[in-house]
Design a protein that fits this description.
With 211 residues, the protein is an alpha+beta fold. It folds into two domains: 133 residues, Mago nashi protein, CATH 3.30.1560; 38 residues, no CATH class. The chain contains eight helices and six strands; from the N terminus they run αβββαααβαααββα. The protein has a six-stranded antiparallel sheet. The longest helix has 21 residues.
Amino acid sequence: MPQNVKYWLLIVIIIAKVEAKSISGLSTDELNIQIEANSSVSNNHFKINIRKKHNIVNIAYSILDSIRYSALHKDTAYMRIIDEFKKGKSIKDSVAKKLFDDLVERNSVYKRDLIVANLKSDKAYDHLLGLMMTSSKEELENKEQNKSRIILDDTYVKYTVNISSQTKIALAHSPSQISNPLLYQLLTQTLNLCREKHRNNFLDKGLTSGY
């Protein structure tokens, strides 16, 4: 085989290996995924931050424990919005809603914890992170298939995926294995991984909307 043919064949093999490695989730690129879930009926509110670097993943998670209403009631901006709401005015205005949410968040108390996992011993989870990297927003949200879906609960989940300088945001209403398989798997497998590492009632399913 001529030397130039061998050279280009080697290049093709290297490129194929790099692409396969990236798709499988084994890329050395840094990955950060933020998950935030809210339920207005159960008042469940929890957050997960997944940070992957090489074969190590750090997962920080927090669950809403309480809200300091006594402090909020002393905040003039908060009380002004509440007064407007009592008068029958909506607080869906983007500026007022953001201010309201920011004030509540500032006075929210969370239970927090952190785990560290080695992806060399959890290839399935590593592969799942790889799929989150390569899947598009449209594939994750699966809106076309879900347009006539009937939903019985009200858990809204926001996924923010950061890869290098690129960011994609996917939204899901009560994600399930059928409606949003990748988003559901990421949420449930991440929570279960945390439960396995730290066996306590911190992540009771009653506090995570059944996930």
